[in-house]
Amino acid sequence: KHPAPHLPGIFSHPSFRNLFFINFRMIGTIAKKELRLIWRDGRILWTAGIILLMLVVAAATAVERYRVIAAERAAAQSLVEEQWQSQGEKNPHAAAHYGIYAFKPITPLAVFDTGVSNYLGVSIWLEAHRRNRAIGAPAQDMTAMLRFGELTAAFTLQVLLPLLVILMAFPAFAGEREDGTLRQVLSSGVTAAQLFLGKGLGILAAVAVIVVPLFALGILALALSTPAYIPHALLLLVVYVLYGLVVLSLTLAVSARARSAQSVLVTMVGLWAVFTFAVPRLAADVSQILFPTPSAAEFQAAIDGDLQAGINGVSPAAAIAERREQTLKLYGAGDVDELPINFQGIVFSLQEELGGQVFERHFEELESRMARQLDIHEVFGLFSPRLPLQAISMELAGTSLRHHEAFARAAESFRAQMIETMNRDLTFNSRPGESSYRAGPELWSQVGSFSWQGVP
């Protein structure tokens, strides 16, 4: 007996290199046959049913969670702004220390992929002389099991979708080789390209029956609520389909070379475990070793040291003395008490400026380290399709680190504008040494409301 054909013989077939002459009717017939075999396999149907149930549960719980969180954050933002407006008459600098919270809004696609949002803070306290980090990370209130892996649609598809594809595709060639039907099929006039594409199309159709309806329902819900996110949802569908195609193509290629279906299953499940769990874990560890981020205490200690020492060797006291001389010269006065303005307001503004430079440098350095860690993840993405999929999914869902950093920058910009409004009023509407000066709701209303709608 002649040995059954293996992958080199299949892929070296001329028709595989010349796809323009493929008989699409034949491909359709092969796809229907493959789809029929999948539906007849009770084990695959049970597995697909379990995954579908997990997707439905994940989507249902995520929708309710999104509704609650969105309402809570909107109510909290409204409450703190009402407290700011009704704080009563006081010194503008005291109001700057009274401060206000900025809450990060949740995006509709966080229903699908929560990304890193559970591990980052949801609110930032905006006050004078201090740039605070976000606090209130939801993961702090989670149990250890939830922190290990929250059940979301994205997590389910990233982890279980490739496993389902493997279970459907592993016997595609190797199974027929063991049954002795592969040579008969190829000798009947079916080309290798038709067989490969037909089997792939049939398996893809079976997966689509499970995944596409859920995406369609999600897109319909977005169309009725927030249509601006529809393009993002469509791109999410595309990238997850491409993810499935990568796993499907790899499984079919291994099945075309292997001598037994069992060896294909063992090989692909091993690869699945590696690129789903091992490589992402290794990427996280290596990125932290190469570009470690400081602890919260170390980060704050470094900032406090620079706030006292100043930038470029110029201490805050020296900068204030220089600004005093410039102001006195500008107004032709011999002492700050002779100025027509309150020099203390200028001091507060200068302290904000100097402090802002310190905070900006340290926060930029922290963001740079995180960006380098993400670069390491991109390198490891060459060995795990899940890593680039995770990055793209979080970006499209608005739950990536980049989106959080954009929120933090928007909050800092709002803080700087708020503090400058207070300092300007103190400078031009009070007199030197006038400790009894008070401002009221007219000034508080000039600050406006914090609003951030995310980034493209």
Mind explaining what this structure looks like?
The protein is an all-alpha fold and about 450 residues long. Helix content is about 70%, strand content about 0%. Helix 14 packs across helix 15. The chain is elongated.
How far apart the termini lie comes to 62 Å
What profile does the largest beta sheet have? 3 strands, antiparallel
What is the global morphology?
elongated
Helical segment count? 18
Strand order of the largest sheet: 1-2-3
Number of strands: 3
Strand portion, in percent? Answer: under 5%
Range of helix content: 55-70%
Low-confidence stretches are 1-10, 15-21
* Classification by helices and strands: mainly alpha
How confident overall, as mean pLDDT? 90
Rg of Cα set: 31 Å
* Order of helical and strand elements: HHHHHEEEHHHHHHHHHHHHH
Give me the secondary-structure topology.
Blueprint: H1 7-11, H2 14-17, H3 24-40, H4 42-85, H5 92-98, E1 100-103, E2 123-127, E3 130-131, H6 144-148, H7 153-169, H8 174-179, H9 182-187, H10 192-225, H11 230-257, H12 261-290, H13 296-309, H14 316-331, H15 343-380, H16 386-397, H17 401-429, H18 441-446
Antiparallel strand pairs: 1-2, 2-3
Helix pairs in contact: 3-10, 4-7, 4-10, 5-17, 7-10, 7-11, 7-12, 10-11, 11-16, 12-15, 13-15, 14-15, 15-17
